[in-house]
Amino acid sequence: MKKVAFYTLGCKLNYSETSTISRMFEAKGYEKVEFEQHPDIFIINTCSVTDNADKKCKKIVKEAKKISPNSYVTIIGCYAQLKPREIAEIEGVDAVLGAAEKFRLIELLDGFTKEQETKVLASEIQHANTFNNAYSINDRTRTFLKVQDGCNYGCAFCTIPLARGKSRSDSMENIVRSAREIAETEVKEVVLTGVNIGDYGIQEGRRKEKFSDLVMALDQVEGIDRFRISSIEPNLLTNEIIEFVSTSKRFVPHFHIPLQSGSNTILRSMGRRYLRELYEDRVNKIKNLMPHCCIGADVIVGFPGETDELFLETYNFLNELDISYLHVFTYSERANTRAVEMEGAVPMKKRNERSKMLRILSEKKRRKFYQENLGKTFTVLFEEDIENGQMHGFTENYIRVAAKYDPLLINELKTVSLSEINEKGAVEVVEPEFVYEKH
Ligand code: SF4
């Protein structure tokens, strides 16, 4: 029996896909092992958004060859689609598979027999037009369920459409079936995952279903305690979705809404499909209906043309906005995007300073959000995340809780009341002795 190990870089979508591919291997009789357990085959699922994707890929291949010198090394994922020839040059790589090929790798690489030449099977991205469903089962608590892939938006800084192709989705029927399968396991929380999930519903190039209908259909699936919407574009987050989530027992009050910039000048030049007024309107709508809702935002600093004044517009906008945390990205040039051709490159030092300012702002926002929720009662889903005698979990509105380790609490939902923040930024809760701390 051949042993296979996996390594995943990047987003939730990559994790869900690695997990599904690993189940395909197991179904064919391969044994799935850890990276360091001397596998015969390594599958490395790469990301193009990660900085230094090439260096990371090389490093993982090198480690793999150290562990099993005669192993068969296969590279898949966004970086493999974008730069297959470059990857084929890396010493130790046996095969590179693109987006249209990766789900067929067992059949395409037939027995994983080493050959003189590196195999490169990566068709042009327009051939990646089928939808392969996927969900992760990495731990018992949470699963990432892929509902959509690809993107038709073409933002100026983004390589994802080049790496993952056009927007396409699974049918509602299939997704509900997968959710029912997941409900048969011990998993308590399902995170809906995709590249642009608000654009859910395109099948074979035609819009057939709507994301709001999917949300409503999943809400009926018995046996799953929580659904979380991972990230949704502000222009696709409709009142219908917000209103539904506000009354749902299963969809949790947490939205992650990419903003990218708080300056309309920069939003236009990025090719985003909304202005800051729309974003603000979405946040207000959510907060009016669900004052305890957690809202996260992605922001890119140092996009070409972002002057000090325009950055300040973003800073002030975010400072005023009732959101709970930020994911800050420092802009970096990516080949084959419109942004690399743009004038007004921001010096790296400035990009880093801006990034630091927003990270500090994010911490302030998070603390304020925690404070606002003191004295309230929430449900925590405890995970197998144990450190120094403490275990961790998240409330429905994404507050991270730490409590004294108790094996009986793993993968259990517990109602707690958050009582006070201690001097380390942690909050103690009533009954049992829970502590809630920032992350
Ligand atoms: S919406 Fe824009 S940033 Fe998001 S995946 Fe599509 S092109 Fe990239």
From TrEMBL:
Residues 2-114 form the MTTase N-terminal domain. It comes from Shivajiella indica. This is tRNA (N(6)-L-threonylcarbamoyladenosine(37)-C(2))-methylthiotransferase MtaB. Pfam families: Radical_SAM, UPF0004. SMART domains: Elp3. Gene3D superfamilies: Methylthiotransferase, N-terminal domain (3.40.50.12160), tm_1862 like domain (3.80.30.20). CDD domains: Radical_SAM. Its cofactor is [4Fe-4S] cluster. PROSITE patterns: MTTASE_N, MTTASE_RADICAL, RADICAL_SAM. Residues 137-368 form the Radical SAM core domain. The lineage of its organism: Bacteria, Pseudomonadati, Bacteroidota, Cytophagia, Cytophagales. Keywords: 4Fe-4S, Iron, Iron-sulfur, Metal-binding, S-adenosyl-L-methionine, Transferase.
